[in-house]
Amino acid sequence: MIIDNGASFLKKIHKHFSGFPTMTAYTQTVNKIGNWDLDYFERKVFPGYYSTQSNGTSGIALKRNGVTWMSCTPMEVESHLLAQHGAKGKVVVAGLGLGLITMSLLKKHQVKELIVLEIDKDLIEGYPLLLSEKERALFDENISSGRLKFFQADCTKSLDKDTLTACRGADYMWVDTWEFLGSEKGLEHTLILQEQIKAKAVDYWGLELDLVINCARMDNKAKQGKRKSNFMQVVEKYPVPISAQSFDKKTKAIYFELCLMAGKNCVELIHSK
Fold it and tell me: Does domain 80-272 match CATH 3.40.50.1360?
């Protein structure tokens, strides 16, 4: 079974997963928060993470010293599929960025408590200023009710007592605390946090690329059937309890194809630059 990039692709995504995160609406009037710069742009075509390309739209990028740490584009949205799907109950999000997944999860009723860990105090305090009136109302409402909480924390080090107490026993954790997709920091940062928080399930940005790489290391010349078998082994033996371990057989098979597509699209994007 191969998933294409058209209507059938989207149909299978929405059938077996919870769909992609919703796009956050921003004011587009704030250009700087602390040491962070905000860049607003428009493009006719955007590369995707699972899809080869998506229709153009306006975008926003969060930059520091000229390096983009997060941008709200189709690739960013698609690469947060697992977070949107797996988050429920008590959820920890490591890394605020532009708040794409944070704001999307506030609209998901299965999420009862959302704890965001962010190292940058200026970003935490200035973030609400980025939001449109409607998004700001949702943000403020959840802050007031206590459903949404922020902790200033360096996710690469030991968490302080109050932060750790708040996060312990999380049902789900999503980690995104580095600048480049596919970075080795992904698993590294996730292991540091998971050792402390011990979430029931944890995923991180770019996990799909790591799964494909680990699968290829087992046998990079394997045929389709063997590749899928190798992939299932990699998933089951992964060093943190990723949500894919609890997928049913059909969903795991679809996720395998999605991972292959993500790997292929990212390689093509790198070569096109």
Answer: no
